[in-house]
Amino acid sequence: MLANFRITSALGAALIASAMVNVLVMTGPLYLLNVYDKVFASGAIETLLALSLIAACAYGALLRAEDLRIRILHSAPPIGGRLAALPSAPQLLDLPFLPLFLGVLWLIHPAIALTALGLGLFDFLFAWRRPLAPTRQAAVMRGLHQIGQSAVIGVGAALALQGTLSMGALFAAALLAGKLYAPLEALAAVLRGPDAAQPFAGNRLICEGYAPGPHPP
């Protein structure tokens, strides 16, 4: 009973910290959006200074939230220790918040959201079904990320030419779309392990420190 409570508490605290991280990580895209669409349009240096100050505070809070999440993962042994030992643990904790990014992309434009979702699913399937040597895998995934970002920019540029999307929204969408890849690739890495034939058991695999390859004794 106590062990289950500690598991629930550790995961709950880590998820709360992850929620803070995933909200604050939108600072960059929102800053870019407002600079392009408001500062450049108005030429108001005061607006730029105010936005920069807000962004600086938000980035500071983001760093604190990231540090808090890692400390939570390390501070609740054995569950926290095992979860922290998994290299992709923070990315796995970001999985529940992918709908948040897709929702923001949908608000920017549905075509952008659908493009990002399709590319993210392709990235996930490739990482899951086509395991490569680590160095080659990293190089291929970086290439897929660049292709995905270019595709989002291309779709956004077409919408901008039609007058349905601003330049600030275009670049903000490109940054937001890039946030989809790491959590999906982390999930693919878990599913690609020795027990990949078994259905993904969500937090159970995370809590048990499941990772591809042999476990330390």
From TrEMBL:
Give the main localization category: membrane
Q: Does the record's keyword annotation contain Signal? A: no
Q: Which domain of life is it from?
A: Bacteria
Which residue ranges does UniProt annotate as crossing the membrane? 12-33, 39-62, 108-128, 151-177
Q: Which UniProt keywords apply?
A: Membrane, Transmembrane, Transmembrane helix
Instruction: Write out the annotated subcellular location.
Output: Cell membrane
- Offer an example of a GO molecular function term for this protein: ATP binding
Q: What is the protein's name according to its record?
A: Type I secretion system ATPase
- The organism named in the record is Ketogulonicigenium vulgare (strain WSH-001)
